[in-house]
Amino acid sequence: MISSAIYKIFRERRVIQFVIVGLWVFVIIYVFTPIVNEYKFVTLHKINKAGQITIITRNTPHCYYLYRDEPMGFEYELAREFADYLGVELKVNLAESWEGMIPLLNDGAGALIAAGMTITPRRQNQVSFSNGYMPIQQHLIAHRHSDKIKSLTELSGKTIHVRQATAYQERLEELQQQGVRLTIELHNDMPTEELIQQVAQGEIGFTVADSNIALLSRRHYPSAIMAHPISDLQHLGWAVHPEARQLKAKINSFFKAINENGKFDEIYNKYYGGIASFDYVDLKVFHRNIKNKLSRYSPFIKAAAKKYGFDWRLIAAQIYQESHLNPRAKSRAGAKGLMQLLPSTASSLDVNDIYNPVENINGGVRYLKKLYDRFDKADTTNRLLIALAAYNAGQGHVQDARNLAVRKNLDPDSWESLAKTLPLLRYRKYYKDAKYGYCRGTEPVIYIKQIMIYYDILKRQGIEYGEVQARL
Predict the structure, then answer these.
(1) How many domains is the chain partitioned into structurally?
(2) Which of 62, 301, 321, 427 is the most exposed place for a label (fewest CB within 10 A)?
(3) Statement to judge: residues 432 and 325 lie in one domain
(4) 55 strand-pairing partners
C-alpha cells in the first residue's frame, strides 16, 4: 500500500513536470517565433534603423542597367525616388533569375521586388503586392511582315516562345484551357527583350511581352510589332513579404504622392514617352545643319581639339551624333549640351554651366582624351574608336567587352573585336558574368559607324575653319 501510494505520487509529479516543461516549450515557441520570423524579412522599422533600403531587381532595360557607368532603368529610378521619400540610401540586389527573386525577398535579401512584376493570382499566393502603379497589357509580338492576327482563336496552330515561370506563361496556359490549340515553347530565364530580338530577326515566329517592354524594345527592333493583345488590362506592382504591412502601406502612399506631384509621369516619359524607331543617317538634314550651325561652334571645337590632340572634324562629327549641334539638347538619360555630358561627368570635369557651348565642348573633349589615354595598348586608330565606344556606353561596359574578347581569343585592343563582343552583352548568356551587367551593345557600334560617316563627309568636303558657310 505504501509503495503503491509512493508510486502514485511519483507518477503524478512526473506528469506535472511534463506538463510544466510542455508549457514552457509552448511559451518559448509562441513568444520567440514572431521574433525569428521577423528577421526573415525586412520591415519598415529595419529600413529606417539601417538608413538604407535594398531592392531586388533584374539587369534589364526596363529595370536596371548602367549607361555611361551611371545606373539607369525605369524601376531603378522609381526605387531611387522611394529611397529619397523615406530619407534612406538605396542599394540594389540583382537577382540571378526571375524565379529567384521571391526566395530572395522571403530570405530578407531585399525589402521589396521592383522588377516590373505583373500582379497575378498565382503570385499573390507567395507575396503581398502594392497597389498597381502602372497598367500594362500582354501583347503577342510578331514580325511586321507576318500574317495579321485578328482574334485569339487564330493563335491555334502557332508556337509562342516565352520565358518560363512568367505571367505570359500563365496567360497562354489559360488560353489553352479555353480551347485555343497553341503550343508554348518555354525558355529558361531568357530575357523578353532577347525573344523580341529573335522575332525581329526571323528566328522565331512569336513571343509575348507586356506593352511597356514592347514599347521600349521598338526603337531597337522596329521589325517586331505588337500584333494583338492577349490579356485584359493588368497592373505592375512592387512585391513585399506578406507580413511587411507597414512597408506596403508606405509604398502605396509613395505612389500616390508621385502620381499627384507629377514625378511618376516624368520618369515614365523619360523611358517610354514618344518612343520611335531608329534615327537613320539623313544626309540632307546633316548638310543643312552643318551649313547653318557648325560655324557658330567651330572655333571652340577647333581650339579644344587642338588642345587635346584630336582632328577637329572628328569632334564635330561626334558632336553632331550626340546633339545635332543643339546646345540645349537633353537626352532621356539626363545627358546635356552639345557633347551630351551627364551632370556627374560634367562635375568631375569642372564644367560649371553644362549648357555653355565652350564649357561643354572643352569638358567633352577633355573626357574623350581621358578615355583615350586609358587604352594605351591599342594602336592610334583602334584606341580612338575604343575611346569613342567608352564615351557612348561607359568604360565599364567596354572593359566587359574587352574581357569577353579575351575569352573568345579575340584581340581586346582591336575595335573590330569589340564591335563583335559589345553586342553580345545584350544576352544574359554573356552579361550574367560581366562585372557591369547588361549593355545595349549595338548602340556604341552604330554610334561609331555614324560618327565615321559624318567624319568622312567633313574630310571629303575639305571643310576648314572659316570656310563652312562658303562650302556647304
Answers:
(1) 3
(2) 427
(3) yes
(4) 92, 112
Closest CA to 239 of 134, 106, 137: 106
Q: What is the pLDDT of residues 299-354, one digit of tens each?
A: 999 999 999 999 999 999 999 999 999 999 998 888 999 999 999 999 999 999 99
Whole-angstrom distance, CA of residue 429 vs CA of residue 406: 16
What is the distance between the alpha carbons of residues 39 and 282, in angstroms, rounded to a whole number? 59
Question: Looking at residue 77, which CATH number applies to its domain?
Answer: 3.40.190.10
Task: Give the distance between the most distant pair of CA atoms in the chain.
Answer: 130
Distance CA 261, CA 282 (A): 39
CA 390 – CA 384 distance, rounded (Å) = 10
Cell 578615355, residue? 371
Q: How many Cα neighbours within 13 Å face the side chain of 366?
A: 15
Residues 338, 429, single domain; the answer is yes
* Extended beta strands in 58-166, E state: 65-67, 70-72, 89-94, 112-118, 128-129, 134-136, 138-143, 159-163
Q: Which of 262, 210, 215 is nearest to 236 (CA)?
A: 210
Q: What is the 3-state secondary structure (H, E, C) of 115-139?
A: EEEECCHHHHCCCEECCCCEEECEE
H-type helices in 210-332, by residue range? Answer: 211-218, 245-260, 263-272, 283-308, 312-323
| Secondary structure (DSSP) of 336-385 | BTTTTB-HHHHHHTT-S-TT-HHHHHHHHHHHHHHHHHHTTTS-HHHHHH
C-beta separation of 339 from 319 below 8 A: yes
Distance of CA 116 to the CA centre of its chain: 11
Closest CA to 53 of 237, 267, 238, 235: 238
Domain containing 194: what range?
138-232
pLDDT tens digits, 411-441: 999 999 999 999 999 998 999 999 999 999 9
Q: Which of 322, 359, 416, 467 is catalytic?
A: 322
**Other Cβ atoms within 10 Å of 107 Cβ, number:** 11
Domain closes at, from 272, 298, 320 = 272
pTM above 0.70, yes or no: no
Q: Are 363 and 457 contained in the same domain?
A: yes
322 is catalytic: yes
Q: Is 35 part of a structural domain of the chain?
A: no
CA atoms of 381 and 217, how far apart (whole Å): 32
Structural contact between residues 449 and 286, judged by C-beta atoms closer than 8 angstroms: no
